[in-house]
Amino acid sequence: MSTNSTPSWSALKRKDLRRSRRYAVDGDTLRVSWLGVNGDLKVVQQARVLNVSEEGMAFELPEPAQLVTRVKLHSDKHKLLGEGTVRHCQRVGPKYVVGIEFSDGLRWRAPDDSVPEPVPLSDPGE
Predict the structure, then answer these.
(1) Which has the closest alpha carbon to 61: 26, 36, 24?
(2) Domain holding 89: CATH number?
């Protein structure tokens, strides 16, 4: 019998090692722009947000975004204007799920109390 208390790599991979909790988002969209592989400007007017955390978010795009590419986020409805860096991009069906880490001081504030998911991207009272 082994007394090694160090978890195996496979056990670590199964655990959620994220720094902050992710919240499912209630069908909100925002404008996303980024430079494509050929240096051309790509813009999606209504990228569907899938989830958000205090440090980043995931959304759907019709084509891939390169890792470490900077993306601009904009939404008048949610009073959002900022940037993030692509950390994850995976094809899921006909779309790509892109996960970004916020940059330049952009943050999302998690709800203070226990709220049912999905959550709105911004406070409806704002």
Answers:
(1) 36
(2) 2.40.10.220
What lies within 8 Å, CB to CB, of 37 at 6+ separation is 66
Minimal CA–CA distance to 86: which of 44, 27, 30, 35?
A: 35
Structural domain range at position 31? 16-103
pLDDT tens track for 10-45:
544 545 566 788 999 988 999 999 998 888 999 999
Whole-model pTM: value is 0.81
3 in a domain, yes or no?
A: no
The angle formed by the CA atoms of residues 69, 102 and 24, to the nearest 5 degrees, is 110
33 Cβ partners below 8 Å, 6+ apart?
41, 42, 43, 44, 71, 72, 74
Q: In whole angstroms, how large is the CA radius of gyration of the chain? A: 17
